[in-house]
UniProtKB/TrEMBL annotation:
GO CC term (a single one): cell outer membrane
Domain TonB-dependent receptor plug: 54-159
Protein's name according to its UniProt entry: TonB-dependent receptor
Species whose genome carries this gene: Croceibacterium mercuriale
InterPro entries in UniProt: Beta-barrel_TonB, Beta-barrel_TonB_sf, Plug_dom, Plug_dom_sf, TonB-dep_rcpt-like
Amino acid sequence: MRVFLGAGSAILWAMLAQPVFAQASSTATPANDAASTADGNAIIVTAQRREQALQDVSAAITAIGTDRLVEAQVNNLSDLQTIVPSVNFGNDFNQAKIFIRGVGANTSTTGNATGVALHVDGAVVSRAEAQLTSLFDLARVEVLRGPQGTLYGRNATGGSINLITAKPTRTFEGYGRVTFGNYSNLITEAAISGPITEGIAFRIAGKTEDRDGFGTNPVTGNDVDDLNRRMLRGHLQFDLGTAAQLLLTGEYFRQDDHSGAVHYLAASFPNVARLAPLGVGGYATRPRDLASEVDVGTDTESYSFTGTLNVDISDTLSLTNIANYRKFDTSLFQDLDLSGVINSLQTTGQATTVQERRIDSEQYSNELQLNYSVDFLDLIVGGFYFHERQRPIDNVGLSRRNGMASNIPLLRAAGIDLAEAYALCGYSPDDVTGGSTVIAPKRVCTRSNLGTDAYAVFGQANIGLGLLSPALESLTLKLGGRYSHEKIDSANPSIVIAGGGRGPVIRYTTEGTFRERSFSDFTPEVGLEWRAMPDLLVYYTYAEGFKAGSGENSAGSTTIVDPETIQNHELGIKATLANGFAINLAAYTYDLQGLQLNKTISGGPTGYQTIFQNAAETTAKGFELDLFGRLTPEFRISAAVAYTDAKFQDYLTLDPLNPVNILTPGTPAYNPVTNPNPTAFGAPGGGDIQLAGNQLRNTPRWAWNFHAEHDFDLAGGVLTAMGDVSYKSRTYFTEFEREIESTAAYAMVDASLNWAAGDDGIRLQAWVRNLTNVDRVGSTFALATGRLLGATYLPPRTYGVTVGYSF
């Protein structure tokens, strides 16, 4: 089933999951655009792998169209959270943390997969780091809430976010936009589309993002959290006769800036002398600044090729196949003590903490799909293949820049081959610094090798029960299922110089750390739709989801955790009222077993240890209310409310902020009897504690948003005034429900004025985001190496103007 690149397989490599709907993509309207139904135009989505009106889909979906994305200045996934309140976004270690209904990315090691899937034109984007790329030239974004175990399968236990790009058109059209804003913000975006010759059309789009940092590094004077991004996408669409289309897509992304690192928040063990942070005296005084002897930075390059083949075999049967290849490389540099103090055994007696994380990932996917549709039956059956090989490298410590003596004699005394040591660290012994001095290998070098091979077969049928009796013609039965099989392998060869670089040297080999596990599961879906009235749909769905176990990139680790499984019940109502005003309500409850969670704890040979484990059971219940439409021809609104009560039912785990659990020796020697718990955070006693009843990570109990817009005739065009208010209640970033590892409730306000001469021509926009300059943490992370808590922050107030022209 695996597809290989080559001339002989070009047609097969041009295939996977979602049909090419060039015309539908250009005319589809956004769910949060209140005009979408007022003019009689249905909101078209492809969330169920075929074109459907949003109000006909028996699932909780939010669809956001082109205009709404542009007017809300949505440039990345994180920007969506003010529009879709049931979704929460964060990031740390340059990884996207996407959560829906309490399910998402609960780890910060690159081996683990996400709990919310991201797809671009039907092709999955596996790496959480790769999900941080920018959004541009999109027809719409579809957010599917709840497990998508049948049609999407792997790693969609929480839901799926689908990016639908704008496709080639049969007439020449295009646009260009330039945005200027504070922090020297400069964004350019342009696209051109049209026919090349009869039966061949193209589309080319590109975007650049440049911005000064929200903070600075007081040691070097350089920016922190700035942006420097470049991206390009090209489509070629071929009409293969009257019944087939082939779409070839290439995409490129490049980033090189000082973003992605965490900032100093607090000491992990206040008042515990033996566990004092390693950077005391060198922290930045302003939260958005980050002091460090080395500039933090993210260096990313990614490219992707996708081929989609659509064939209408008959009036009732069609074939769709999408194949994708994605190459992703990124490096993150940061000092884990988050301080300008230059640690070394010679000067401070502390180990150096400069980290470099590199990720080299290749993935292939292919999905073949058959769609059959007659009066009483819509049927989809298909097969899926996915392969990924990633080779992350994690290095910590020891460089000549901080005055540390070479560790080469230690390695030689331990019988370590220097070529092997350099290879594990990801560089050559010919690499030099200061002109001619060979760089010594780091004190921790881990070069992991992580692989995934996944296969699945799936099917879903919507059966009109009117086939059995006219009395049942308002009822539709939904039956679906997916069988998944995944093979996971993991190896973490490492060289560790324990004692912070003093020794001894510990070596973990590939053979000694290699592990392999296989997982299989069947995820059914059963639902009933009742079309009570032409504009009223009531539905119930039972669905399961499956996320296979995975390994981690950690020195010497042999862990491959068990899978996650979820069982979800959902009851929904979709109503379209007078003048196209729509109200949608979904209520749900789920049980999830084996939630995969990651944390680090201080101590051990490397100075930090990872804990990657499964929580026994979590549950959730909640509801989501969406409404949108026109109140008058000029006045449109949309709003959404999400309530989520997601908590642990059973989870025994170690608290990384309890000093009783930290075995690192110190002076004076630690005595749990005379000094049992002198910290502000850890619970009394050591060992595992039961967290039943605690709230899940990154899941506010309440979240809502409200959007309003009004049109005014002005200067031969239309001026539209827009405003957004979004709210989230307190959000915890760990399972321990500590205030220090959370963000307080907040509301953000965005506003804009938009003037357009018409569908084509000049467009002007003046906008502001986070109008009241709310200052909130976006995520926290316990940095075991530096013995402190780090944080990332939501963007401050930003504002600017956008000038555009379309034709």
